[in-house]
Amino acid sequence: MADHVLGLKLALLASAFRPGIALVRTLAVLLVVGGIVTGILRTLPLVELDDAGHRAALVIVPSILAFALVLAPLTSGLGSAMEPRRFAAYPIAPWRLARSLAVSSIIGPVGLIAVVLAVAVETAWTADGVAQGSPGIAAPAAALAVIAILLGGLYLVAVAALVSVSPLTERVITVAARLLVAVSIAAAVTTVVLAERGQDEEWLATAAEALAASPLGMLWAAPGEAGAAAGWRVAAGALMVIVLAAGWVVVVRRMLETPQRHREAARRTGLGLFELAPATAGGVIAVRSILYWMQDPRYRAALVALPLAPVLMVVVLLVAGVPAEPLWLLPLPVVALFLGWFSHNDVAYDHTAVWIHVAADTRGAADRWGRAVPPLLIGVPLVLVLAPLLAMPSGVVGAEPALLGVSLGLLLTGIGVSSVSSALGAYPAARPGSGPFDQPPQTGATAGWAQALSFFATVAFMSPAIVLAIRGALGEPELLETAGLAGALTGFGMLLLGILVGGAVFRRRGPELLALAQRV
After folding, report:
1. Does the pTM of the predicted model rise above 0.70?
2. What is the per-residue DSSP string for 203-230?
3. What's the CA gap between 203 and 191, in Å, rounded?
4. How far apart are CA 211 and CA 63, in angstroms?
5. Please, what is the Cα angle at 366 between 365 and 367, to 5 degrees?
6. Are 142 and 121 contacting, i.e. CB atoms less than 8 angstroms apart?
7. Taking residues 191-213, what's their average pLDDT?
């Protein structure tokens, strides 16, 4: 039985490499998996067990990654081809099916990362120079940790499938899992940076102690304990694995006997993201804008090119002889600036679809708020996650609040300015469905001044905070917190002002904007 299920799992993985959109997703997953595996293999061999921060990170990082790996199967949805219900028509005993599915779960990205993580952690704990602990117990602890991760992922997906009553519930679970996995990876990277910096050992030790007392970290912390304490942790881990295995068998039996609680046809008849939006004009426009940013090649090309500008700037400055450490502070503000500025001609991208807004007599502020949602959804989490990560290696003490506030201010100010310029200075844009590099025949001078004014207006409004941040980084550290606060307050103020002014301009110039859209 197990060999047949393994064959099915291998065939399923092979099908992911067929040409099409599935291949693109597969390559993206492989890129993420390769990055995580590379990070594990390059980082853990550098652990120094006589360093308190490194020892704490050796508990924290595997615990966080284990949490992400348990959630990872949820990120691909709940309708897996290896779901136990798929085998309900065959005369297979539930315990045999549960065992076979558990064995096959080792094949795949989650199994690969779990095994690499366990081996790397075991190697780190058994290295020379261990001052205390029981390194000999690392191998059984690592093996139990891998089994717990695989069973936990299977169990979680199965329970989620049982409680899911609608496609909307499935989408919410999938999106939440993706966000938690992304945050977990960012937290693991942050922990590595903190441990390497060597200034937060007390905080790391407290976090490691808390995780070591939880199911997430007790097995990873076992090799660092001495004598009976290590044995008790492994015994508790073995008990956890037994409970998960028993629960997995029970869930498989329940899924084989219980039909699905909603029909598959419901997946194709819902309103999609519109079901998640509030029943307001702004909510509907927000969802429509999100779909544009997700599916329109004009938006996708801009998002793909977004990281290129800071990379090129950093390369040029490095070639010019600028020290590398301060340049860590440059990419995030540049990305935030361009992300906020990108929607400066958002109305023209609607083409003739803007007539819906005009004909429905949509409130200008609702239109502005709706169009601001996609860059906010992308930019705000990006700034919150990357600001502390990029500030730490910069060598500037206390740079985190300045980088966070200035980046957030550039994003919000850019969106506020774009909310005005997209209604006041709209110019012809490539039509929907056109390639990302297609351009209208004659854009005239309007395009140039609209782009330049919206860009430089954003920089001008943020210039006080930017100047304070630069002065703080160059030797006046007391100004860094002020720069962060000034940047954040400027951003929020300009966003609100831009929404109000842009809404009034949009409502007044609605017929002119419609005529412009019909002319291109």
Report:
1. no
2. HHHHHHHHHHTSTTTHHHHGGGS-THHH
3. 10
4. 7
5. 90
6. yes
7. 81
Question: Taking a C-beta distance cutoff of 8 angstroms, is the pair 154, 164 a contact?
Answer: no
Token couple for 276:
């998640």
| Inter-CA distances, 129 with 42, 53, 141, 308, Å | 19, 15, 20, 44
- Identify the CA nearest to 432 among candidates 352, 361, 512, 371: 352
Joined together, the tokens standing for residue 80 give 């897996």
How far apart are the C-alpha atoms of 414 and 426, rounded to whole Å?
A: 16
* Residue 174 contacts residue 25 (beta carbons within 8 Å): no
Give 247-299 pLDDT, tens digit per residue. Answer: 888 888 887 776 555 444 444 455 666 666 677 788 888 888 888 887 777 77
- Rounded Cα distance between 48 and 29, Å, is 31
Measure the CA–CA gap between 105 and 96, rounded to whole angstroms: 14
Helix pair 281-295, 297-305: axis angle to 10 deg: 70
In the prediction, which pLDDT does 307 show? 80
Q: Are 406 and 465 in contact (CB under 8 A)?
A: yes
The DSSP-derived string for 242-309 is HHHHHHHHHHHHHHHHS--SS-TTHHHHS-GGGGTS-SSHHHHHHHHHHHHHHH-HHHHHHHHHTTHH
- Tell which phi-psi region holds residue 270, choosing left (phi > 0), alpha (psi between -120 and 50) or beta: beta
N-term to C-term CA, the chain = 63
